[in-house]
Amino acid sequence: MENNFIALKKVLIKRRAKLLSAQKTKRYVRRDNRHGDDMDQADSAYEQEMSYIFRGRESDEIKAINEALDRINKGTYGRCDRCGEMIGIKRLEARPFVKYCVDCQEDIEKKRELETAMVPSSWDESEY
Q1: How many Cα atoms occupy the beta-carbon half-sphere of 13 within 13 Å?
Q2: How far apart are CA 82 and CA 104, in angstroms?
């Protein structure tokens, strides 16, 4: 499995370089959306929001890649951060920066969904 980790390390380094390069070359311009009609203002606000979301995702991916590279260097790469079992090689090849095995990831997502569903709404029907 170590040979696979060498290949995955190269994939991670290449992906990180690509993301960092893209961040340097992109110009995130904040437009003054006080001018123009309502549609222009809405378009501008939408573009800014999407740009913000994409920047956040790219930053999150870079952070995850750095953490994966750190795990490779420490010798803990390929083990689930939650249960300690080995993560399947197919999963690592598909997403080399994952921290959890499939079972633990599914469990985490189910708990997150439950927590979200249990958050009380601020909307009270009896008020209307």
Answers
A1: 9
A2: 7
Whether residue 126 is contained in a domain is answered as: no
Each residue of 66-123: pLDDT tens digit? 999 999 999 999 999 999 999 999 999 999 999 999 999 999 999 999 988 877 766 6
Tell me, what CATH number does 33's domain have?
1.20.120.910
**Domain containing residue 86:** 2-120
Tokens of 21: 């390069």
- Render the burial of 45-79: b for 16+ CB within 10 Å, e for the rest: eeeeeeeeeeeeebeeebebbeebbebbeeeebbb
51: in domain: yes
- C-alpha to C-alpha distances, 89 to 35, 62, 74, 80, 94, nearest whole angstrom: 53, 21, 18, 12, 9
Q: Work out how many domains the chain is built from and give that number.
A: 1
**Whether 65 contacts 16, CB under 8 Å:** yes
Query: For the whole model, what pTM was predicted?
Result: 0.71
